[in-house]
Amino acid sequence: MKPHNFFRQFTTIATLLLLLPQLLQAQIAAPSPPRLNAGAYLLMDFASGRVLASKNADEALHPASITKLMTAYAVFRAIRSGQIGIDDPVRVSEKAWRTPGSRMFIEVNTRVPVNELLPGMIIQSGNDASVALAEHVAGTEETFAEIMNQLAAELGMTQTRYRNSTGLPAEGHVTSAADIAKLASALISEFPDYYQWYSQKQFTYNGITQGNRNALLW
Questions:
Q1: Which residues neighbour 56 within 8 Å (Cβ) at sequence distance 6 or greater?
Q2: pLDDT band at 13 (very low <50, low <70, confident <90, very high)
Q3: Are the beta carbons of 152 and 184 closer than 8 angstroms?
Q4: What band does 186 get if pLDDT is binned at 50, 70 and 90?
Q5: What own/partner pairs with CB < 8 Å and gap ≥ 24 does 196-201 have?
Q6: What values do phi and psi take at 144, rounded to 5?
Q7: Active-site positions?
Q8: 44 touches 51 (CB < 8 A)
Q9: pLDDT recorded at residue 152
Q10: Average pLDDT rounded to a whole number, residues 30-54
Q11: End-to-end CA, the chain
């Protein structure tokens, strides 16, 4: 190597070394959270628990079908404890069959396995499946809602109160974005084998195919 080339390279390296502490200390401004058409939200890194963005995270709001996160969590807990089996045939009551809103289209007095009702609830957001599962676990949807509240208390969901298993409008049926994050984190960490249902884009039952209600999958 020619002396002048060596000196030029040495000078460049030396300059970079001198600048390195300043470069390491330089603060890169994080972008502001996007403006969303949502009254409340919370974005959390699952691995670290760090909150990346939030708005009105502790405000109590009606959760609608996000309620079914707790319905699934309660059913998963019942399976883990041996209270019910994932292959159990579940008799569909008239109440479950008549439940309004989004449906899996199960038929009254038929028997549907738990492992088909769960994706019918998680993927298709079936209110009929939610009630059938609630009745199978607790006998009545009202008793199941109390189990949901007990589990919410265990998870530290201080702004949450459940009145049903579906998320259909009911007075006092509320939760918060922060509480939903606690529940989602528990669901992922405790039941990784069942978590794959939430990534499934569609589910077919009785010849009827419906897409996942979670538009983020696309």
A1: 39, 40, 41, 177
A2: low
A3: no
A4: very high
A5: 197/118, 197/119, 197/122, 197/123, 198/122, 200/119, 200/122, 200/123, 201/123
A6: -60, -40
A7: 65, 68, 125
A8: yes
A9: 98
A10: 88
A11: 56
